[in-house]
Amino acid sequence: MTQTLHIIGGGMAGAEAAWQAANMGVPVVIHEMRPAVGTFAHRTGSLAEMVCSNSFRSDDDEQNAVGLLHWEMRAANGLIMQTADQHALPAGGALAVDRDPFAETVTARLRAHPLVRVEPGEIAELPDSGHWIIATGPLTSGALADAIAAETGREALAFFDAIAPIVHFDSVDLSKAWFQSRYDKGETEEQRTAYLNCPMDRDTYEAFIDALLAAHKAEFKPGETAGYFDGCLPIEVMAERGRETLRHGPMKPVGLTNPHQPDVKAHAIVQLRRDNALGTLYNIVGFQTKMKYGAQTEVLRMIPGLENARFARLGGIHRNTFLNSPTLLDGEMRLRSRPHVRFAGQITGVEGYVESAAMGLLAGRLAASEILGRPVSAPPPETATGALVTHITGGAEAKTFQPMNVNFGLFPPVDLKGGRRNRPARYKAYTDRAKAAWQDWLGHFTVGKAAE
């Protein structure tokens, strides 16, 4: 009888790992502590719940590394990408999803799979035997985090992640805001108008920065440190780094023309992106914040068009935990001291929904292959998935290891000259090479038919 694969955590990584292993014929048990044991950020007990942005970022599989990761997961029959495509929202060249139906569909498909069982309850200790994947994400429970720290003899690294506010669309003043994707990007009119834009002149921007810097912020507990990940900095932290930082980040005014004042160039622009299929909710793009709730409403209503904004959810901040994977995991994501335990998802030091799901896909396939007696090595570093796992399990410098999004800097270089002018050809060379290598790697698996 085939042994069972146990997965702790039903987020993006755990859900994808379960799907991949079950479709290879391996029985799977997902151990999920929610909703009995909640977290700061989660609202439901659904699997694969999206707690921050609703964006999977760029869907360009020829010129963008995360788009390439999308392509690899689709080629591998990935549940997360199938479901994201099913519940996609207009987002220009990006892939954004309707978060609640997305999580509900992932949950329903896994619960309907004949080889998947979801067991509620918290796992507080590292297992002594069996086949396990720990995919508890950045909000790993305190008890399990303590058990991991005790086993490894090292303290888990930590940083703080912030959540962006969500606004009710009918409270936005459309006499000031307008619909447009940056540079009119997108193949359809809906995609080219996927974002709401709120312009600021110089005086408004300067007043906004002053208020942001003066606002009351969430305080840290004794012994906590604010080691933020640069890809998810709170807006007030960006403002502290320089008054112009936001204008060159989430508030950059390029590629947009205000139809209300077409001859006036905005000094800064705040963008909002649709957060649900009905178009009733919009999240403020790149506006993660640790301001206290009262301060948030005051400061955010200084944005033209949001003076009377009603918030479906205000921003927040929570502690994220991840491993020093280069020292603790082998090249197949196994804990060196307990090789029957694999790790997957954000806890391994990848950042982002897509990267987390990709590590779940990989861990699920590697674990299932081992259980079936047909072990397969990790994919080559020329692939997006392989580049990520190579980075976190040995390619990164352990002393300075930080969470990482997928990017072409993690790939072995391509022999193509031409500098910045030849960047499109170079990126295409990366993605063409990766797709061929990924298809070759997938050919090593015997995968059963997915449950419908």
Describe the structure.
The protein has 13 helices and 17 strands. The chain has 452 residues and is of the alpha+beta class. A hairpin with a 4-residue loop joins strand 4 (88-89) and strand 5.
Summary?
The protein is an alpha+beta fold and 452 residues long.
Using brief descriptors, characterize the structure shown:
disordered C terminus; 452 residues; alpha+beta
| CA-CA gap between termini | 24 Å
Number of strands: 17
> Strand sequence of the main sheet, in spatial order?
6-2-1-7-17-16
Q: What overall geometry do the principal axes of the alpha carbons give?
A: globular
For the biggest sheet, the summary is: 6 strands, mixed
Given the helix and strand composition, which structural class is it?
alpha+beta
What CATH calls the topology of the largest domain is FAD/NAD(P)-binding domain
Main location: cytoplasm
EC number: 2.1.1.74
Enzyme class: transferase
GO molecular function: flavin adenine dinucleotide binding; tRNA (uracil(54)-C5)-methyltransferase activity, 5,10-methylenetetrahydrofolate-dependent
